[in-house]
Amino acid sequence: GQIDGILVFAYEVTTQVQARHQAEDAARQLAEVNQQLDSSNEELAATNEELLASNEEFLANNTELGRTQQALRQLNEELEARVEARSREVQAALREAQQQREQLRTQQRLLSQILGQVPAAIATLTGPEHRYSFFNDNYLALTGGRAQLSRPVAETLPELVQQGFIKLLDQVQATGQPHVGTEAPLQLRDAATGQFVQRYIDFVYQPIFDDQGRVQNIMAFLVDATDKVLARREADQQRGLLHTLFMDAPAPIAILDGPSYVYQLVNPAYQQIFPSRALAGRPVFEALPELVGTAVPGLLHNVYTTGEPFVTQELPLELARHDGDVLQLLFFNFTYQPRYNASGQIDGILVFAYEVTEQVRARQAVEDNRQQALALADELALTNQRLRRTNTDLDTFVYTASHDLKSPIANLEGLITA
User: Fold this and answer.
1) Does domain 106-231 have CATH number 3.60.40.10?
2) Distance from first CA to last CA of the chain, Å, rounded?
3) Per-residue pLDDT tens for 148-163?
4) Which residue stretches of 260-356 are H helix?
5) Would the CATH topology of 106-231 be identical to that of 249-355?
6) How many Å is the maximal CA-CA distance in the chain?
7) Nearest alpha carbon to residue 337 among 322, 349, 327, 328
8) Among candidate residues 302, 304, 258, 308, the one with its CA nearest the CA of residue 283
9) Which single residue of 70, 138, 374, 418 could bond 121 by disulfide (Cβ 3.0 to 4.6 Å)?
10) What are the residue boundaries of the structural domains of the chain, listed by start?
11) 337 has which bridge partners?
């Protein structure tokens, strides 16, 4: 019954102790993060105070803008005064021109000798009845061969009475003041068919004075403007149709006029990009000053000077949709197409644009998600690899432990049963 030995039972708790130490380290780190979070909250509060100060500065800027607008109104009043003064100068110049015309009376006799060679319809009318004293071949052709020397205009061309042309001749005869008509409608009866033919004429009724300053004759100078008027009307119709098509188009369209690129036309779809910003009638870089430092000025200059259209896809531009807004990164597909005038010279640029910001951002989001998914897959693969190594190490440990403990446990069992 005497003690002859000691049985020792032990269990290694190294892993638990290390885990507890790790938990304590994590708790300390969490406390540090909370402390940093408190500091961030304090910084955020300071930022909010700065934002309030910025808002007050913005209100002050609005007040300054009001003063600037008042100054602009004063400048407009000064401009109107200058325009009025300029108008008086123009009127004085017109009076001087009238005096110069009076000095040219003596030269009018020489002019009558060459009227037959002028490529226009010309006739001279004498007396209050406006009898033909001269007409050239172009005038005879215009009247369909009906003009006759020494006969009054009202007798040879009676349709002119109701159209007011005889009244205009009476007025020039009575006042001595010339009359100028531009693209005036004129209906002349065709002697062959008896039907009236619609024409348009540019004309001048110019009084010719005798030595006593009395109206002796009236020179009628007429140019057939029918083709010009009809062509312009057709062009106006085409422009009107084109304008309607542009304004109804669902895609953004604008027309920039002249080398200053003034917005001559802005359709609703284009205006919708900048809902509250005034574009029409303003140069593009005045209406959208944020474009000055971009590639747009160079692109417009190249199209305007070379006539080469420009087409691009997903061009990034930082723009503000509303005046005073912060700049946003927007993406556009657009075409710059040169516009030519009747002389074949470039006088503007057609802009066909389409905003693709949402599409680009959606594609970028998809790409970001794909990259994140690839990164997550790589991380998962690495984690799985580490887990497999851990499982292998654990299997080895269990196998070794079970083999090494098998003999001691058997000895213990023998002792206990003894």
Assistant:
1) no
2) 14
3) 999 999 999 999 999 9
4) 268-271, 284-287, 296-306
5) yes
6) 173
7) 349
8) 258
9) 138
10) 72-101, 106-231, 249-355
11) 350
